[in-house]
Write a structure and sequence with these properties.
Elements: H1 16-20, E1 22-32, E2 37-50, E3 53-62, E4 67-78, E5 81-85, E6 89-98, E7 101-112, E8 115-128, E9 132-141, E10 144-154
Antiparallel strand pairs: 1-2, 1-10, 2-3, 3-4, 4-5, 5-6, 6-7, 7-8, 8-9, 9-10
Length: 158
């Protein structure tokens, strides 16, 4: 199992506040636990600091034409730790940044077939040279892996 401490000396150093302030674009895919591509999507993110919180206004467009929106409120806790909330997040997301990496974990109420499933996300994000952030999230329910989300965030278009 990975440990966030293993990334403490990696460059470039990740600051969520610096990376996500302003406009960010992302492209992602969802693969089921068998590796089958089930969905792809694009995200535009408007990020800004408000009252000591990083607010991320995310707009999703899926390959099937569906649209979604999520607004995150992420609060720095000091020492690289963060907490976050959003309307579809159950409780509070928690994360820690060290070096170029963030481990971000949360439970989400995910709509599936007309019902809401409570699933767990374990995200690992890695800042790369050129202001690209790679995110791999493992999604589980009752400890069983349901799938993987892979995202690439970019600031290149500013």
């Amino acid at each position: 199992m990975m440990n966030i401490e293993d990334f403490k000396d990696n460059e470039p150093q990740l600051s969520l506040e610096e990376f996500f302030t302003g406009d960010t674009w992302a492209w992602g895919i969802f693969e089921d636990r068998f590796g089958n591509l089930k969905r792809s999507f694009q995200v535009t993110i408007d990020g800004r600091m408000e009252n000591g919180q990083l607010m991320l206004d995310e707009h999703f467009i899926y390959n099937d034409g569906a649209k979604d929106r999520r607004i995150w409120y992420i609060t720095p806790q000091g020492n690289g730790k963060y907490q976050g909330t959003a309307a579809d997040i159950a409780g509070t997301a928690t994360g820690k940044v060290m070096g170029n990496a963030l481990n971000w974990q949360y439970d989400m109420n995910l709509p599936v077939g007309g019902k809401n499933w409570r699933v767990h996300f374990n995200d690992w994000m890695y800042l790369q040279p050129g202001n690209v952030l790679i995110n791999k999230a493992i999604i589980t329910k009752w400890g069983i892996q349901l799938g993987t989300v892979t995202l690439f965030f970019s600031k290149c278009f500013q």
